[in-house]
């Protein structure tokens, strides 16, 4: 885990790597989805939404949220007071036939941008996509924890959020999601009827921490963001980085070796 964290922070520190392909802005499909889905969601699920006034109406904004469920990436765009885009794995956009069309149309309707996921160059390209969205003056959503929390605790933030903010000058709006894991638990394909809370915190200007090239500045800025998220959710702090479950035996062995090396 430590090796992965260092690798990601090193990738995020290279300003020369920030020239990714400029992503498209949300179009008619997104607007139609927002117009139709948001009112239906409010009537059926009756979410508590707090702090909408904290979201700047114009300019680049990063929504930095805790992450409890797959449905978080639907809840935020539907409840946010302005258009917001986020990254989703490319497979959602490349399917064929009717099923592929449904998947592609749905994710476009909620503002998703396809990206290859992974470490190394793939991770940097994901950040480049986010930078392109922000530099176009749009809003971009990111989960600093990196992946969903499976035990409900709030994990330590990775510094990509700070790199984006310090590189683009974007304001960060912390987002606190409560009970979205009960709305759609891990492994569940259909959302349940459960009331959730979405809180938009006061905007943060992270520029005082220093330049994006500074690892210390990125770390301090990220910690400020995570503290703001924690104030909104009240989650138990894990004081560690979150990781996805190992995909196969080789990955489990690698992680076991890394843990022994750190002892």
Automatic annotation (TrEMBL):
The keyword Transferase applies. GO terms for cellular component: plasma membrane. Residues 61-180 form the Phospholipid/glycerol acyltransferase domain. CDD domains: LPLAT_AGPAT-like (cd07989). Keywords: Acyltransferase, Transferase. Residues 1-14 have a biased composition (Basic and acidic residues). This is 1-acyl-sn-glycerol-3-phosphate acyltransferase. It comes from Compostimonas suwonensis.
